[in-house]
Hints:
- Helices cover 77% and strands 0% of the residues.
- By secondary structure, the protein is mainly α.
- This is AEC family transporter.
- The chain crosses the membrane at residues 6-27, 34-53, 65-87, 94-118, 124-146, 158-180, 192-212, 224-248, 286-305.
Amino acid sequence: MTGVLTGFGVIAFVIFVGWLLAALKVVRGEDRIVLNKVAFFAASPALLFTVLARADIGVIFTGSLATHAVAVLVVGLGSAALMWLFGSRDAGRLVIGAHSAVYSNANNIGLPVAVYVIGDGQYVAPLLVLQLVVMAPLLMAVLDALRSGSVQLRRILAQPFVNPIVLGSGLGIVVSAAGWSVPAPVMLPLELLGGAAVPLMLIAFGISLRGQRPLQAGTGRKDVLVATTAKSFALPVVAWLLATYAFGLQPQEVYAATVLASLPTAQNMYQYALRYRVGEIVARDTILLTTILALPVTLLVAVLLHP
Length: 307
């Protein structure tokens, strides 16, 4: 359980640093946008390339990938339907809210959890691929369409070539699938740049918390509550049911899928919301609440399902 506690402790500390910098007026609230741009266009693509380039393709394309994909579809659509029934009519906020209900923090929490709680870091690879190669491009294509006012097939097909995050992820998958070994003079600077991605996102998130309280009236708190409940409780249960009864995974794989489904909402969702200036508060509050809930939920899953 040390890995779970360590992962959450590290994240909480870096978020606190961002909040403290804003509280001391070292940075302004608007500075979070600059940090986000650096993470979005440079650091995050480098990080995702280095992670996925080393992933084992044989581990990625298994029943675990199908489990995560179906669970995300079921819970994501269900969350969007509930938000609509509760009165949310802003399309952009609905998209961000539904994705916040199913987009897991598979990198900066998922990797240490996979290593120390599940016992093998490669178990997180299917979830990373699903989110970075499928979910992220679709999300940004929809947000692009909402911003431009039209859905263009050309823009959707161009996502892998114009979006830096999708491009970095796709190139990493190609390298892994081809079995190539990236030369150290190329990989080392990418690792250095990628190492800045998570701190930049967390500091920007911390800055956004200064002077703010979650679940304030008029900020879409019904959407936040739906997304938080779905992410923290519904997604792990659905993933466990699918892994056990629909796909017949082995106990270790069932355990891994359920643990990873219990992760909090990824910081990327705030990054995307901030980038497109839509649903920012919904993403921010959902990340905060699911991060608080994730530790007890993950520990409970570990106690109940550990093979």
